[in-house]
User: Fold this.
Amino acid sequence: MDNNTGKRKARVANIVCMILCVSLLLCPLHVHATGDGEEPVEVSWPQAPAVTGEAAVVMEASTDTVLFDHNMHEVHYPASITKIMTALLAVENCKMNEVVTVPPEAVYMEDKGTHIALDVGEQLTVEQCLYAVMLASANDAAYALAVHVGGTIDGFVEMMNQKARELGCEDTVFTNPHGLPDESHVTSAYDMALITKAALAYDAFRTVSAASYYEIPSMPWQKDQICMYNHHKMISKSEYYNSEVFAGKTGYTIVAGHTLVTCAKRDNMEIICVVMKDVKDQLYVDTGNLLSYGLDHFSKVKVEKDEQYYEELLKKEDSRFDNCHVSLPDEGVFVVLPKGADASEVEPEITCGENLEDVTVSWYWQDHFVGNTEITVSSMGAESEAQEETADREAERETEEEKKPFPWKYLLGGGAGILLAAGIVTGIVMIRRRARQSRRLRWEQSERRRYAQRVRQRRRRRRRGRRW
Assistant:
C-alpha cells in the first residue's frame, strides 16, 4: 500500500514538472538585460554632489544642457575669470602676431594685483599677451590688450558688455578687462559658462588655455625672459591635476573669494564647470566632484530622427509650415542624458523666431532640459501662397487708387503733421541729451571728489607713518 502511494506521488511530481517546463517554453519572461545578471534599475536624474561655493553650474558645451545648478543666476564678483571675456574679444578681433604696445596706465595702475612687470612702451604680440592673461593672470597684460582691441578702456568695456548681451548673459555688467575689485563689476556662474562656451569656439583660446607653461623671450627692452606657469592646478602638474581638463581660468580677490572656470572632455562630450565664491582649500575639491558628476553620470547621445519627423512637428505647430523642407546640422542631433537613458524617450518643443526659416527644437527628458537643436526650414508652400494672395490684393488696391483724383489736401495735411512730429521728437531728443550730459558731468565731478579724497587719505597715512 505504501509502495503504491509513493509511486503515485512520484508520477504526480513528474507531471507537475513537465507542465512547468512547457509553461516556461510557451510563456517566456520579459526581462530587460543589464549585462551583469542583475535586475534592471529605472533610470533617473543623478543625485548631485554638495558644494561649499555659493554658486556653481555644470553645462555641456555643445547642447547648453545644464547638468548641475547651484544658484547659477546669483550675482557675484568674478575676479580674474573676467579675463576669459577679454581673451574672447582678443581672438575675435585680432591676429595672433599683431603688436601690442604697453600704455603707461597699464604699468602705473593703482592696486595692480598680479602682473608680469611690463614697462611703458614695451611691445608684445597678441599671442604673448593672451598667455600672460590666461596663465599668469597678468592684469597689466590684460589692460594693454584691452586698449589695443578697444582703443580705450571705456571702448573695450562697451565691447565686453555688448558681447555679453549677444551671448544671452542677463546677470553680467563688466567695468574693466581684468576683474580687479569694483562693486559694479558682477556676473553669474551661468553667464560665465556662456562666455566660456563662446571662447571655446576658437582654437587659439583652447591652445593658450591648455598650456601649463609658457615663456616670453628676452628682448632689447626686456632683458630677462618672462616665465609663466598656469595658475589652474588641474592643468599644471599638482595634486589636483586632471588629464581630462583642457582649459580654464582662476580668480581671486578678498571680496570675490575664490572663483574657478574649468573645461573637461571625455569621449564626445565637453563640459564647463564654474564655481564662484568658494574657499581656497575646497575650490578644487568642489570642482573635481562636479566634473566627476558630469562625466561619470551623463553621456552625449544622438537623436535618431529624420527630416520627415521634424517636418511633421512643424506642420502640427503652424499651418504655414505645410510642404516645408527641413535641413538638419551636418553632425547630427544630440542630447545629453543620464547614462542608461533611452534617447527615444526625449520630447521636443518647437520655438519659432521672427524669421520662420530659423527654428529651435528644445529637447526634454523627464521634464529636464537636455539640449537644443537649430534647424533650417525652407520651401514653405503655404506661406508662398499667402504672399501671392497679399500681392494680388495690393495690386488691385493700387489699380483702384489710380482711378481716384490725387488727394492734395491730404498730402499737405500729412506733411504738416510729419513736420510737427519731427519737431516734437527733436525737442525730446535734445532734452534727453542735455539730461545725459548733466548726469555725466555730475558723475565726473563726483569721481574727481572721490579721487581727491583718496589722495588726501593716502597723504594722511604717509604723514602718520613718518611720525611713527
Residues 408-467 form the longest helix (60 residues). The chain is about 45% helix and 20% strand.
